[in-house]
Design goal:
Elements lengths: L2 E7 L6 E3 L5 E7 L7 E9 L2 H6 L3 E4 L3 E2 L6 E2 L10 E10 L4 E3 L3 E5 L12 E2 L6 E9 L3 E11 L1 E6 L2 E2 L15 E8 L7 E10 L27 E10 L4 E5 L6 E4 L2 E5 L3 E5 L18 E2 L1 E2 L6 E4 L5 E8 L2 E6 L2 E19 L5 E7 L1 E2 L5 E2 L8 E4 L7 E3 L6 E9 L12 E12 L5 E5 L2 H17 L17 H5 L1 H7 L3 H14 L24 H4 L1 H13 L3 H18 L26 H22 L3 H22 E3 L8 E3 L12 H9 L4 H14 L9 H13 L3 H8 L8 H5 L24 H9 L2 E5 L4 E4 L9 E8 L2 E10 L2 E19 L5 E5 L2 E3 L2 E5 L2 E19 L6
Parallel strand pairs: 2-10, 16-25, 22-32, 40-43
Antiparallel strand pairs: 1-3, 3-7, 4-5, 4-6, 4-8, 8-9, 8-10, 11-24, 12-17, 12-20, 13-16, 13-18, 14-15, 14-17, 18-19, 20-23, 21-22, 26-35, 27-28, 28-33, 28-34, 28-35, 29-32, 29-34, 30-31, 36-41, 37-38, 39-40, 41-42, 42-43, 43-47, 44-45, 44-47, 46-47
Helix pairs in contact: 4-16, 5-7, 5-8, 7-8, 8-9, 9-10, 9-11, 11-12, 11-13, 13-16
Length: about 900
C-alpha cells in the first residue's frame, strides 16, 4: 500500500496562522513495495471533522484528480474565513487502483484581511523590557483556543503559570518598516474553567536595540531603531463546545504593565537580570498586580502584520558541563564540549544583591580565560534575589556563540560568604526548528566528524535569518543562502526559512534596484560589502534552489519583479561591453580579504542571473521576458569570453585559459577556471583547454579558494570525474584544509582557512557537505525536485563504505555503498512516485551486476575516460552487487 504522509501547507512551517486565502497543499509518500506510482489524488477540506470523514458538507473536494503531483496544489474551494479552523486530508491511488487515505490534518487561518485585527498594541511607553498581564474568566467546555500574538523586539508568552510553546526569540527578525511577524499558538489545553491569566515578557531584539555598555555590531554602521517603544499585541479566540466564542485582546484598560527584571536585553548576547526585581508568580493566578501600571495604547509598528511562516527558534539540545577549570583565582571556566549558539544557564545561590558575571566565548586566551574576537565586550550579569535556594537563570532575548563559559564574582566552595556560590552551568543550544533530513556516515570517522561539525555550524546560524555567526555580527549576509543552500538542504528542511529570506531580500531592495549584501538591512555597509553580485544574485539563485529542491514556485513568483529590477540596476553598472567590475570577488580566499579577479567572478554571476531569470520567465509564461533575458545572457557570455579568455603560455596551462581583462594570468588560480566551467560559460571548442588549466591549478591538491568559488570548484572537478582531487584537498594535513579542523578538535566549522579564525562557528566554507552527499553518498535530483533521482556513489578507492539518507520533498532516499575486494555493493531505496538512475563505476566491460542475486542488463557509458554502469529503476528498495564476470557472488 502507498500512503500519503507528512502532509503540509506549503510555505508555512506550522499549520497554525495560515494567512493566505489560497493555501497550497503537499505531501510525501511511503510504501514498502517497489514500482509504486501515484496515479490519482483527492483532497477534501471541511469545517467539521465529521464532515471530513463522511465527505459531506465539504468546503472543497478536488475530486479524483489524474495527476502524480505531490505539492504545489492550490486550494480551489469555498472562501476561507479569518481565524478559523479547518480539517483536511488526502487520498492517493496507485497505478493499480489501490487507494489509501492520509490522517486528518488541521489548518487554522490567521488574519486574511488587515482590517480584521481588533487588538491594540500596548506597552509602558519606553524602550526597556517590560511585563504585561491580564486576567479573564472562562465559563464552559472549551472546544479549541488559539492565540495570535506578537511583541517587539522579542516576546515570551505565558498562560496560567506556564510558558506557551517551545519558541525562543519570537517573532522572527524582519524589516519592521515593511513587515512584522505574529505567531499563532494552540492554547486549548491552557484554558481553565474560571479565572485565567495571560502574561507577556518583552525585550528589545533589533526593533529598538539596546547596546548598554557592550558589543552591538551595527553601531557605527548606520543602524537606527525601528521604534522607540517596546510593545506587544495579541488576540485569543476561545471557542466553546456550544458554539459560542470568547475574545480576549490586548487593550489598554484591561492590561497591567511593569518594568522587567531584565534590565538590559542586548540582542548581541548581553543581558542583565536583577532577580530582586522579579515579581514571582506574575503570570499565574492569585497574583496581586494592584501596584502595576495600566498599559498604554501605543502606535502600531509601520510594517504589515504577517504570520511567522518560518520555523521558530527552539532549544535543540541542552549541554552539560564536561570540565571545570580555574585559570585565575575565583575565575571558573565551564567547558560544555560543544561550540553552539547558546543561551547559557547558571545555577547559583548566595546573598541578595550579589552579582555573577557570565562571559561565554569560542576562544581561550593564553592564560586559559575566555577570549572574544576583536576583544569585543560581551557578557551578562545576574543579580541574586538571595532566596536561600539555588537560583536558576538563563537569557530570555539573546544567544551567543560559545563553547566555554567564564563565571566571575563567585566561589565554588562557599568559603567567601559575601559571594554567591556557582553550582552548575548548562548550554541551551538554540537553532531553527527546521527538521533534520540528512544522515551520512563513512568508514573514515574523520569525514563523518567533518560532516557533523559543519552541521553544528549550520544549526548555530539557522535562526530567523541565516546569520553569518552567532558572535560578532549575527547579520543575514545573503550569499550563504544561495552558496551554502544546497549543502544545507541535504541536511535540513529549510523551504519556509529560505522563502522568508527571499522576502527579506525583496524588502531590502533599494529604489535603484540594488539588493544589498545583508537582509534585513539592519546595518548599512558600503562598496562591495553592500553591493556585490555574488551576494545580490541570491534574489535569483535562492528561488532557483527552492524550485529545484522542493518544487516551490512561491519564491520565484514573489521575487520575479525584484529580479528584473536588480538586473536593470546591474546593467547600468556594466563596463567594457558587458563586464561587471565591482564587488568582492572570491571573498575569504585569505582571512578577511576579497579575492582577485573581480570581473571574472562577478560577471559569471551576472550571466547566471540572466540565464535563470529567463528560465523563470518561461515558467511564468512571460515569453517576451524569457527571450529578452536569454539574449542578455548570451550577450554577457560573448563579452565574458571575448574579454577574459586568452591564449596563455607555459607548460601545463593549456592553450587557452581565463585571465584578468588586462591579460594577467595566475596558473594556480582555481576559481577563475572552475566558475565558467560550472556555469556553462565555456564554449565546447575551449572546454578541454579550460579543464587542463583547472587541473594544472589544482595539481598540488591544495585548496586556493574562498567561499564564493569553493562550491563551483568542487562542482567543476566532480563534473570532470576528478573527485579524487577534491578528496585530497579535503584531507590535507595543513591549511587550507577541512580535516585539520577535525583533527584540531573543532566542534563547529571556523570562518577561514586558519587555526586562529576570528569566528569558530561559521558555515560559509562548508560546501564540502554538498560534495559528500552528492558525490560520495551519491544522491541528487535529476529533475522536478527529486521526481527523478540520480544515485551515483563515488570515491570507492578512497572511501570504502558510505551510508546515509536524504528525506526529499517526496520522501526518503537511502543509500548504502561499499567497496569490497571483489567488487561493489549498493543498497538503495527510493520513495514512491519517483524513478531513479543508478550510476556505478566499473573497471571494464567484463563486469557483471546482480540485483538480489539475479544478473541484470545495464547500459555502459564513458565519461571523462571513466566507465560507468547505468541502471534505470522505479521506486522501492534494491540490492546490487558488481563483480567481474565469472566470479562467484559476493
Amino acid at each position: 500500500m502507498m500512503i500519503p504522509v507528512n502532509l503540509k501547507i506549503n510555505n508555512y512551517y506550522s499549520p497554525l496562522g495560515i494567512d493566505t486565502a489560497s493555501p497550497i497543499f503537499g505531501w510525501e509518500l511511503e510504501s514498502e513495495r517497489q514500482h509504486q506510482i501515484q496515479a490519482h489524488y483527492r483532497i477534501v477540506l471541511a469545517k467539521q471533522e465529521e464532515s471530513l470523514f463522511g465527505c459531506v458538507q465539504l468546503l472543497w473536494d478536488s475530486g479524483k484528480v489524474n495527476s502524480s503531483e505531490q505539492f504545489g496544489i492550490v486550494y480551489q474551494g469555498q472562501p476561507l474565513q479569518s481565524v478559523s479552523a479547518y480539517y483536511w486530508r488526502v487520498a492517493v491511488w496507485n497505478q493499480h487502483g489501490e487507494m489509501a487515505w492520509s490522517e486528518m490534518q488541521t489548518l487554522f487561518t490567521g488574519y486574511l484581511n488587515d482590517e480584521a485585527w481588533k487588538a491594540e498594541w500596548i506597552g509602558r511607553g519606553g524602550a526597556k523590557p517590560f511585563y504585561a498581564r491580564t486576567e479573564f474568566a472562562s465559563e464552559g467546555r472549551v472546544k479549541r483556543a488559539y492565540a495570535l500574538v506578537s511583541g517587539l523586539g522579542h516576546f515570551k508568552l505565558y498562560m496560567n503559570g506556564e510558558k506557551v510553546g517551545p519558541n525562543e526569540m519570537d517573532p522572527g527578525w524582519t524589516n519592521y518598516a515593511k513587515s512584522v511577524q505574529y505567531v499563532c499558538f494552540d492554547v486549548t489545553d491552557k484554558i481553565r474553567e474560571g479565572s485565567n491569566v495571560i502574561g507577556f515578557s518583552v525585550g528589545n531584539g533589533f526593533y529598538a536595540g539596546d547596546a548598554g555598555d557592550r558589543h552591538f555590531y551595527t553601531i557605527g554602521k548606520g543602524y537606527e531603531p525601528y521604534g522607540t517603544e517596546l510593545l506587544a499585541m495579541g488576540e485569543w479566540h476561545i471557542e466553546y463546545e456550544d458554539g459560542s466564542v470568547l475574545y480576549v485582546r490586548t487593550e489598554g484598560e484591561n492590561w497591567k504593565v511593569r518594568e522587567s527584571a531584565t534590565t538590559l536585553a542586548n540582542v548581541y548576547g548581553s543581558e542583565n537580570f536583577d532577580a530582586r526585581l522579579y515579581p514571582n508568580g506574575w503570570y499565574g493566578l492569585a497574583f496581586d498586580d494592584s501596584g502595576w501600571e495600566t498599559a498604554k495604547v501605543l502606535s502600531a509598528p509601520v510594517g504589515k502584520l504577517v504570520s511567522q511562516n518560518q520555523p521558530p527558534i527552539t532549544v535543540r539540545t541542552v549541554y552539560d558541563t564536561i570540565l571545570i577549570e580555574e585559570p585565575l583565582d575565583q575565575v571558573y571556566i565551564y567547558d560544555l564540549g560543544q561550540n553552539m549558539s547558546g543561551m547559557f544557564e547558571i545555577y547559583v545561590s548566595g546573598p541578595a544583591g550579589s552579582k555573577v558575571t557570565v562571559k561565554p566565548g569560542e576562544l581561550r586566551n593564553e592564560d586559559g580565560t575566555v577570549a572574544t574576537p576583536w576583544d569585543i565586550v560581551t557578557y551578562s550579569e545576574y543579580t541574586l534575589a538571595g532566596t536561600g535556594d539555588i537560583e536558576v537563570w538563563k537569557p530570555d532575548f539573546s544567544c551567543y556563540g560559545a563553547r566555554w563559559v567564564q563565571i566571575e564574582g563567585c566561589t565554588r566552595d562557599g568559603a567567601d560568604k559575601s559571594k554567591p556560590i556557582i553550582h552548575d552551568v548548562k548550554g541551551h543550544f538554540v537553532t531553527s526548528a527546521s527538521e533534520d533530513v540528512g544522515k551520512l556516515q563513512t568508514d573514515d570517522p574523520r569525514i563523518t566528524k567533518l560532516a557533523q561539525i559543519i552541521i553544528k555550524a549550520i544549526e548555530s546560524n539557522l535562526q530567523s535569518v541565516h546569520s553569518d555567526c552567532p558572535t560578532i555580527e549575527k547579520l543575514g549576509w545573503i550569499e550563504t543562502a544561495s552558496l551554502m543552500g544546497p549543502s544545507i538542504m541535504y541536511v535540513k528542511s529549510v523551504e519556509e526559512l529560505w522563502l522568508k529570506i527571499t522576502r527579506d531580500m525583496i524588502e531590502a531592495q533599494t529604489e535603484e534596484g540594488l539588493i544589498p549584501d545583508i537582509a534585513p538591512e539592519y546595518s548599512k555597509f558600503s562598496e562591495g560589502f553592500r553591493d556585490s553580485i555574488a551576494w545580490g544574485s541570491a534574489i535569483i539563485l535562492v528561488p532557483g534552489l527552492l524550485l529545484n529542491t522542493y518544487g516551490n514556485r512561491a519564491a520565484m513568483e514573489e521575487a520575479y519583479p525584484a529580479m528584473k529590477a536588480y538586473l536593470d540596476y546591474l546593467k547600468l553598472k556594466e563596463v567594457d561591453g558587458g563586464l561587471i567590475n565591482h564587488g568582492l570577488g572570491d571573498w575569504g580566499i585569505a582571512p578577511q580579504t576579497g579575492g582577485d579577479y573581480v570581473e571574472n567572478v562577478e560577471t559569471a554571476f551576472y550571466y547566471e542571473s540572466y540565464r535563470l531569470t529567463s528560465k523563470f520567465a518561461s515558467l511564468l509564461e512571460l515569453g517576451s521576458d524569457a527571450e529578452h533575458y536569454a539574449a542578455e545572457a548570451e550577450r554577457v557570455k560573448r563579452s565574458y569570453n571575448a574579454k577574459l579568455l586568452r591564449r596563455v603560455a607555459g607548460e601545463g596551462t593549456g592553450r587557452y585559459a581565463y585571465c584578468k581583462p588586462n591579460g594577467e594570468f595566475d596558473p594556480l588560480n582555481q576559481v577563475v577556471q572552475a566558475i565558467p566551467l560550472y556555469f556553462g560559460l565555456v564554449d565546447e571548442e575551449y572546454r578541454s583547454d579550460i579543464e587542463s588549466a583547472l587541473l594544472h591549478a589544482v595539481s598540488g591538491r591544495q585548496l586556493r579558494s574562498g567561499e564564493i568559488g569553493l562550491r563551483y570548484l568542487f562542482g567543476a572537478l566532480a563534473g570532470m570525474k576528478r573527485n579524487d582531487i577534491v578528496f585530497d584537498m579535503m584531507m590535507q594535513p595543513e591549511h587550507p584544509s577541512y580535516i585539520r579542523f577535525v583533527e584540531r578538535g573543532e566542534t563547529a566549522l571556523p570562518e577561514f582557512w586558519t587555526d586562529d579564525s576570528r569566528s569558530r562557528n561559521h558555515d560559509m566554507m562548508g560546501h564540502i557537505l554538498e560534495w559528500l552527499y552528492k558525490e560520495v553518498l551519491g544522491i541528487s535530483s535529476v529533475r522536478d525536485a527529486y521526481k527523478e533521482i540520480l544515485i551515483a556513489p563515488g570515491c570507492s578507492g578512497l572511501i570504502q563504505h558510505v551510508t546515509g539518507s536524504h528525506r526529499s520533498a517526496r520522501g526518503e532516499i537511502k543509500v548504502d555503498f561499499k567497496s569490497e575486494m571483489n567488487g561493489l555493493r549498493l543498497a538503495v531505496s527510493l520513495p514512491p512516485n519517483t524513478s531513479g538512475i543508478i550510476k556505478l563505476p566499473i573497471e571494464s566491460d567484463e563486469m557483471a551486476i546482480m540485483e538480489s542475486d539475479t544478473p541484470i542488463s545495464f547500459e555502459r557509458v564513458q565519461e571523462h575516460g571513466r566507465l560507468f554502469a547505468v541502471i534505470r529503476i522505479s521506486s522501492g528498495s534494491y540490492q546490487y552487487a558488481v563483480r567481474e564476470s565469472g566470479v562467484r557472488n559476493l
